[in-house]
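Is pyridoxal-5'-phosphate placement plausible here? Inputs below.
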Amino acid sequence: MNQPSEFPAHAWMDGEILPWNDCRLHVRSQGAFWGANVFEGVRGYWQPASGRMHFFRLDEHLQRLRDSAKCLRMAVPFSDEQLRRGLGALAEANLFTTHVHAVIGLAYGLGPRCESLGHIDAVHAHITALEMPRSPHGRSGIAAGTSSWRRIGDDAMPPRVKTGANYHNSRLAHQEALAAGYQTALILNHRGTLAESPGACVAAVIGGRLVSPPPTSGALPGITLRAVAQIAAELGVAFEQREIDRSELYLASEVMLCGTLVEILPITSIDRIPVGDGEPGPVVRRLQQRFDQMVGVSHD
Ligand SMILES: Cc1ncc(COP(=O)(O)O)c(C=O)c1O
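Reply from A.M.:
I modeled the complex. Tokens:
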């Protein structure tokens, strides 16, 4: 197979740097076949002045990876330090000099005779990274539609566990949103209150306070959201985690996504109703500016 040029030269798997195309799980492995895996997406911000890659909040990502694995009774075959070194070695091997999005994953292997559900060892670890510019919509914002799909819940598929299997729910919502002409979805939980978007947490400015649903509403405990809460405190903006009704979002002065991939991304309309005046608002702008300082880059 020829290596497509949009992929970097190297990946990391089970302790070794190897060619991108050799980073493989068998199709019948639990990880590939059943989505029995856990992972973290981490942004690496390239710092041209120092010639170094700054992986944002890597310790928090590694802790959440371990939390996800624990819930799935998955034995993690590498220490945090080994994964940290693997990520650093991968960035060096690929000679990255731009921002990247890295995925650190743990996946169940084949198991005895592909036995499907009881298998908890033979775990493979992999790290891959792709060059990833900052979000092109960070300045302009995006349109969101409320999904007809409900967010999975802790009583069936805990959204707190960052496993590939959970993203079938995200995929349904995202594809529905794209087909309806939106750029993302807002997914409600079974109580009908806001959970999250397919791949990011949601925060809104309501009555001058920044509010976001707690994990018990069906949101991943977001690392970007935690950073945003920290910035809000510095800026003197009150931050609160509580249940949020759909109609509250229609009346919010600002709504935004917070996540590793999207960073802080304004939502300028929901169900074709403008959020505020339909333009990114002052709070999101200030959060973005301070976030850029925190990650050590300016918005390109
Ligand atoms: C479903 C989901 N919710 C929320 C988030 C945001 O989390 P974080 O800021 O830690 O990337 C992500 C992104 O990883 C996600 O996939």
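Short version: The first strand starts at residue 10 and ends at 13.
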